[in-house]
Amino acid sequence: MPPLSPAPRGLDAAQETSVIRNIARYAHSQAIEADEMEIDQFEFNVTSAEKPHIQNDVVTLHRRAAKDHRVKLAISYALSQSTKLSLYERRVVDTVLETKHLPEQLAATGQVNCLPAV
Protein backbone atom coordinates (compact mmCIF):
# COMPACT_ATOMS: atom_id res chain seq x y z
CA MET A 1 0.00 0.00 0.00
CA PRO A 2 1.50 3.39 -0.97
CA PRO A 3 2.12 5.91 1.82
CA LEU A 4 -0.62 8.45 2.42
CA SER A 5 0.09 11.94 1.22
CA PRO A 6 -0.01 14.64 3.89
CA ALA A 7 -3.30 16.47 4.39
CA PRO A 8 -3.53 19.80 2.58
CA ARG A 9 -2.47 22.72 4.75
CA GLY A 10 -4.62 25.40 3.13
CA LEU A 11 -4.00 28.04 0.53
CA ASP A 12 -0.64 29.21 -0.69
CA ALA A 13 0.15 32.94 -0.56
CA ALA A 14 -1.05 33.66 -4.13
CA GLN A 15 -4.35 31.81 -3.60
CA GLU A 16 -4.91 33.59 -0.29
CA THR A 17 -4.29 36.99 -1.91
CA SER A 18 -6.72 36.14 -4.71
CA VAL A 19 -9.45 35.14 -2.26
CA ILE A 20 -8.96 38.30 -0.19
CA ARG A 21 -9.10 40.50 -3.30
CA ASN A 22 -12.35 38.84 -4.44
CA ILE A 23 -13.90 39.29 -1.02
CA ALA A 24 -12.72 42.90 -0.78
CA ARG A 25 -14.13 43.72 -4.22
CA TYR A 26 -17.52 42.28 -3.28
CA ALA A 27 -17.51 43.93 0.15
CA HIS A 28 -16.72 47.30 -1.41
CA SER A 29 -19.55 47.02 -3.95
CA GLN A 30 -22.01 45.96 -1.22
CA ALA A 31 -21.02 48.64 1.32
CA ILE A 32 -23.50 49.56 4.03
CA GLU A 33 -24.21 52.91 5.64
CA ALA A 34 -22.22 53.91 8.72
CA ASP A 35 -25.32 53.87 10.92
CA GLU A 36 -25.97 50.25 9.89
CA MET A 37 -22.51 49.01 10.82
CA GLU A 38 -22.21 46.62 13.71
CA ILE A 39 -18.94 45.94 15.49
CA ASP A 40 -18.54 43.12 17.98
CA GLN A 41 -15.52 42.34 20.10
CA PHE A 42 -15.01 38.64 20.77
CA GLU A 43 -12.66 36.89 23.11
CA PHE A 44 -11.18 33.55 22.05
CA ASN A 45 -10.17 30.88 24.53
CA VAL A 46 -8.34 27.67 23.76
CA THR A 47 -8.76 24.83 26.22
CA SER A 48 -8.54 21.08 26.48
CA ALA A 49 -11.04 20.88 29.35
CA GLU A 50 -14.23 22.48 28.01
CA LYS A 51 -16.47 21.62 25.08
CA PRO A 52 -16.40 24.10 22.18
CA HIS A 53 -19.04 26.81 22.58
CA ILE A 54 -19.86 30.50 22.11
CA GLN A 55 -21.32 32.34 25.07
CA ASN A 56 -21.44 36.06 25.93
CA ASP A 57 -19.03 37.04 23.12
CA VAL A 58 -16.50 34.42 24.22
CA VAL A 59 -15.58 31.70 21.74
CA THR A 60 -14.11 28.64 23.42
CA LEU A 61 -12.37 26.05 21.25
CA HIS A 62 -10.71 22.76 21.99
CA ARG A 63 -6.94 22.88 21.53
CA ARG A 64 -7.06 20.56 18.48
CA ALA A 65 -9.90 22.45 16.81
CA ALA A 66 -8.12 25.78 17.30
CA LYS A 67 -5.35 24.58 14.99
CA ASP A 68 -7.76 23.79 12.16
CA HIS A 69 -8.32 26.73 9.80
CA ARG A 70 -11.63 25.20 8.68
CA VAL A 71 -13.04 25.50 12.19
CA LYS A 72 -12.03 29.15 12.36
CA LEU A 73 -13.53 29.76 8.93
CA ALA A 74 -16.80 28.09 9.98
CA ILE A 75 -17.02 30.26 13.10
CA SER A 76 -16.22 33.37 11.09
CA TYR A 77 -18.91 32.51 8.56
CA ALA A 78 -21.51 31.88 11.28
CA LEU A 79 -20.75 35.20 12.96
CA SER A 80 -20.91 37.09 9.67
CA GLN A 81 -24.27 35.50 8.80
CA SER A 82 -25.60 36.42 12.24
CA THR A 83 -24.49 40.02 11.74
CA LYS A 84 -26.00 40.13 8.27
CA LEU A 85 -29.30 38.71 9.56
CA SER A 86 -29.34 41.36 12.29
CA LEU A 87 -28.96 44.08 9.63
CA TYR A 88 -31.82 42.63 7.56
CA GLU A 89 -34.01 42.43 10.65
CA ARG A 90 -33.40 46.13 11.37
CA ARG A 91 -34.23 47.01 7.75
CA VAL A 92 -37.50 45.03 7.95
CA VAL A 93 -38.49 46.86 11.14
CA ASP A 94 -37.69 50.22 9.49
CA THR A 95 -39.74 49.29 6.41
CA VAL A 96 -42.72 48.23 8.55
CA LEU A 97 -42.55 51.49 10.51
CA GLU A 98 -42.29 53.56 7.31
CA THR A 99 -45.28 51.84 5.69
CA LYS A 100 -47.58 51.20 8.66
CA HIS A 101 -49.74 54.13 7.60
CA LEU A 102 -50.78 52.29 4.43
CA PRO A 103 -52.96 49.57 6.03
CA GLU A 104 -54.25 52.11 8.56
CA GLN A 105 -55.29 54.43 5.73
CA LEU A 106 -56.84 51.54 3.81
CA ALA A 107 -58.87 50.51 6.87
CA ALA A 108 -60.03 54.07 7.53
CA THR A 109 -60.84 55.22 3.97
CA GLY A 110 -61.00 52.11 1.81
CA GLN A 111 -58.19 53.34 -0.40
CA VAL A 112 -54.52 54.14 -0.31
CA ASN A 113 -53.09 57.28 -1.81
CA CYS A 114 -49.59 56.52 -3.08
CA LEU A 115 -47.65 59.42 -4.45
CA PRO A 116 -44.58 58.69 -6.57
CA ALA A 117 -41.26 59.34 -4.85
CA VAL A 118 -39.68 62.63 -5.84
TrEMBL record:
Residue ranges of the DUF155 domain? 10-113
Q: Which Pfam families match?
A: DUF155
Q: Which domain of life is it from?
A: Eukaryota
Tell me where the transmembrane regions lie. Answer: none
The UniProt entry, under InterPro entries, shows: DUF155, RMD1/Sad1-interacting
- What is any one of the record's Gene Ontology cellular component terms? mitochondrion
| Record-stated family | Belongs to the RMD1/sif2 family.
Enumerate the PANTHER family for this protein: REQUIRED FOR MEIOTIC NUCLEAR DIVISION PROTEIN 1 HOMOLOG (PTHR16255)
Q: What is this protein called?
A: DUF155 domain-containing protein
Q: Lineage from the top down?
A: Eukaryota, Viridiplantae, Chlorophyta, core chlorophytes, Chlorophyceae
